Amino acid sequence: MNCEKCHKNHATIHLTAIENGVKREAHLCDECARQTGAITNFNFSIGSLLGNLMEPVKTPKVSQIRCPECGITYSEFKTKARLGCANDYDVFRSELLRLLEKVHGSTQHAGKTPHTVDAHIRKENELIRLKRDLDSVVKSEDFEKAAEIRDRIKTLELELNR
């Protein structure tokens, strides 16, 4: 694409401006862009720019994170073993999941069921899980695994309809 101003050089600067909802584009060569003031000489190196981008983001320590609603910190929760409000579940979600995994070995509650209903409920739960798995396997295009899951779903559906 040639420069829109001089029509001679190759356009290397592509500018986009949106004013009052109207989008305008300009495609200029380096020389015309400098003449129009669209660009100036920058006093930075790519290394320093990338270095600044690669610096770790400073995040507060988990113990210092505070709920904006009730004001409890995670360290206070650990001391009292009680959350302050319902919002704390969202504020401390990642830490709570880590804690549940550590204490219970899972983040999902299994519970107990009567022996007479247990097998049927297990099959229904497995059917739900398999349907979810099938969706994700199809999205990842693992069609062999998808066929296995589909066959297992059909078998379970037949067993449940008896």
Structural overview:
The protein is mainly alpha-helical and 162 residues long. It has 3 domains: 1-41; 62-104, no CATH class; 115-160. It contains 7 helices and 2 strands. It has helices spanning 30-36, 46-54, 74-80, 88-91, 93-104, 115-139, 143-160, and strands spanning 13-19, 22-28. A two-stranded antiparallel sheet has the order 1-2. Strand 1 and strand 2 (22-28) form a beta hairpin. The longest helix has 25 residues, at 115-139. The protein is flat. The mean pLDDT is 81.
The major sheet is characterized as:
2 strands, antiparallel
**Number of domain modules:** 3
**Total strands:** 2
Segments where pLDDT lies below 50 for 5+ residues?
A: none
Task: Report the end-to-end length measured between terminal Cα atoms.
Answer: 69 Å
The arrangement of helices and strands along the chain is EEHHHHHHH
Strand content: 5-15%
Secondary structural class:
mainly alpha
Task: Specify the helix fraction band.
Answer: 40-55%
Number of helices: 7
Question: Which word captures the global form?
Answer: flat
**Mean pLDDT over the residues:** 81
- What's the arrangement of strands in the largest beta sheet? 1-2
Rg: 30 Å
List keywords for this structure.
single chain, 162 residues, mainly alpha, 3 domains, two-stranded antiparallel sheet
What's this model, at a glance?
This protein is mostly helical. It contains 7 helices and 2 strands, in the order ββααααααα.
What layout of secondary structure does this protein have?
Elements: E1 13-19, E2 22-28, H1 30-36, H2 46-54, H3 74-80, H4 88-91, H5 93-104, H6 115-139, H7 143-160
Helix pairs in contact: 6-7
